[in-house]
User: Fold this.
Amino acid sequence: MTWGPAVAGGGAFAPAGIADAVDAPSAVEFMREALVKISEEDIGAVADLLAAKRAELAPSLSEASLAGASADVVRPILGRVFATRRRSDELLVAVGAPQLAGAIRALVHGGGRIEARFAAFDDALGAIEAPVRRDLAGECLHFADPDRYWLWSRWMWDPEARTGALPLVMVEEFDFGGADAGAIYLRVGAATAAVIATARDLGFQRMGASPFAVDVYLAAIYGIYLYTVTRLRMTQEFNKVIPQLPDLVRRLLGVWTTPAASGA
Assistant:
């Protein structure tokens, strides 16, 4: 994975000190608790599902395909992205296939710094609510080139609610703020790079096995957080309907499957 120093150079922590941004005791505690509920084999299996999702999306995210700018080009992308999968028709009507395809093409394949491209995508798709368009941007980048670009989903960091998996394991001083969506995307990348560096230092060897391992790790942390919150606030009967952690992680990452259908 090559994007750690790149995000650090974009206004985040310097590479040499990036792991210091992680609250290591909290990260270890969350992961130990997660490993009680999700096995190493499950973590690897979900990472493999994400790799398969990338393989499915890659043809649609190619520059040549996006140049077609038709609904047939965009629909497979919207159908595989967690935040848009049930709203493909609605978004195509609201924005239009040419504008969607053009924005994704400029985001993934355009020139210039990634934060500028991300901000331009965010501005171009103002007809879509901010959390959805930013989830879409994060998935398009990450699944187009996971060694170069990182994921940003609202369960990782929600700027409005100021919650997510990442702040649970970062030091309080870490600043996720930014002047625009592109700047925030850099901060999410810096935090993700710090988590990877710390996990490797702490002996979580699977972190280096796949560019998607950190996604599974963070989803498991968020799942533990959700269990804690719902256990405190909800009835025992309600808690029983919450999916077990392996299924919850798959749902958060958009790779949950049923015997009758695929996708989450």
User: Anything to note?
Assistant: Residues 3-252 form one domain. The CA atoms of residues 138 and 151 lie 5 Å apart. Confidence is low (pLDDT under 50) at residues 8-16, 258-264.
